[in-house]
Fold this protein.
Amino acid sequence: MALREQEPPAPGPNEVLVHVAFAGICGSELGAFLGHNALRVPPLVMGHEFAGTVAALGAGASERNPALGVGLPVTVNPLSSCGACAYCLRGDGHLCAGRRLVGAHRPGAYAEYVSVSAETVVPLPAGLTPREGAMAEPVAVAVRLGVLAGPVAGEPVFIAGAGPIGLLALQVLRRLGAGPIFVSDLEPARLAMAEELGGRPIDAGRGDAVRAVREATGGLGAAASVDAVGAAPTRAACVGATRSAGTIVLSGLHEEVGPIPAADVIRRELVLRGSFAYSPADFRAAVVLLAERAVRLDPWVVEADLAEGGPWFERLVSAPGGVAKVLLVP
Ligand SMILES: [Zn+2]
Ligand SMILES: [Zn+2]
């Protein structure tokens, strides 16, 4: 991770130049840092979880998004899509074959300035700070998980992984009425966060998460499980902890290819679903949740100067400890 001086990007037609205030570090970017992510190839400015203020409008941008003006505090949906295909027309722009991600397909927000499509810019509601607005992207991922988990009100749910996505999914699922919500992890500091946010922690390093969920649910298992890690053991734990005909939502991508207990999926008629990013509506819902103060990662958010980004990547990869999210400040 190298810090370089570059000319600020010029906003093209229908683009908006955003002065970045905060840009979060995402697990997918840690994967890219380790060379595990085919989408992100150096040299690249990463950064797709961010908020700031509008610095300049490219030609036609204010016609595309009339709410925008210079100085307006905004967050940005980093996924843009063609707007014309069947997926886009039904509101599933995140499934568009022409989708493009800021910080992967085009330069991202680990910079003072980033240029983005005008229609992806979302003004921050009154009272929501750019620091909070920078969290909209991971919150939107959790909103999507809640949409795909199925009806969970009054039902036990299992989440594998108490990283930022697991912790946000916990809060979204609680708001949807799920409970109890079991959260497994190997890191005691992360389990303590899950417990403070209303989850039932399971130390996966010291016992069998599947047995713990089964015992606490009268042998039945969870109505839905969320894999917020994406490794063979967490995928297997989600299958084992979910009751027959229940739903498993796969989100984490620690390993792109790996084994899954298929016989159990078949014999117990489990529903396996992938969950990718968020639709444009999920992203707007995330901004509303943040404005309502319904989700948080504080007090486990750390602010760091952009120049300290490199060391933070190394720390987050090896031993994140009690940190749930690092926000880089350019
Ligand atoms: Zn992300
Ligand atoms: Zn499309």
Observations:
- The pocket of zinc ion (ligand 2) is lined by residues 81-82, 84-85, 87-88, 96, 98 (CB under 6 Å).
